[in-house]
């Protein structure tokens, strides 16, 4: 079944709806693997020491009962800390032996969790008996350093709204006015960030899938070291443009939610890149369309335009739809 934050609990195969949702999740996971966001392997390392030390065992994508965890080298009821590796990778830990719904269970997105941090997210010391390692459709990581580095603070978040109090509670440290870079992972993943502590304040910025340095955050309307709250959600419609011909980035890719984007905006978002160098495009979202224009202000009278429905458009399909390589200058 699905929780309100779009994370998975143990599927009940006696339930038809659960069956279908589980099947959809598997298919979605395969489709999401196409994303050109950094997409490492997904694994979880468990430790019996409180500081990511002591006896350890690593588990890849899958479900692990008590017997399977023991067979994988990790004794029952000994977990005190864990490391989750891979963009959008999640560890769900259970105190039940077979990932039971009736047991307590908590989600841990990408990151390192000492015992103190395990407990901040609601887990307990030496009580874990089963494990699920899975990949979420959307995850956002905040860093206190520029260029996705952290001096002392980072946190990964799943789909949900997070006030300043939530961020501080989950991170176990000061979460206000410390963020200098943001990673948004998942084809339709979107982060809306605010300088107010409760989704308010003077500025708000929308960040679709992509990596955002402090310079990129400013280009999107945010300010460095001023984020105080955030909403992580799935966007209805996202278009991604690439300078590579096969939906990959030679130097850059840029994501856009619903709206009109002139050449000036595209170039600003790309830090000087983005205009007149597009070779492929992806449109994500049911019923979503993107129209590319040769002109710099979405004007159809001065050149070609081409409309794309949901799907992937490497260079051959991109040009077949009426676009011209390295000529896109505005986008709707």
From TrEMBL:
Residues 42-86 form the Beta/gamma crystallin 'Greek key' domain. Keywords: Repeat. InterPro entries: Beta/gamma_crystallin, G_crystallin-like. Gene3D superfamilies: Crystallins. Belongs to the beta/gamma-crystallin family. This is Beta/gamma crystallin 'Greek key' domain-containing protein.
